[in-house]
Amino acid sequence: MTASPIHVLLLHGLWMRGFAMAMLHRRLREEGFQVHQFEYMSVAAPPEQAIARLRKRIRALAPGPVHVVGHSLGGVLALLACRDDDLPEGRIVCLGSPLSGSGAARGLTHRWGGDMLLGRSKELLEHGLDRWDGRREVGVIAGRQPMGLGSLVGDVGIEHDGTVGVEETRLPGLTAHCVLETSHTGMLVSADVARQAALFLREGRFDA
Question: Residue 75 sits in which domain range?
Answer without folding.
Answer: 7-130+137-203
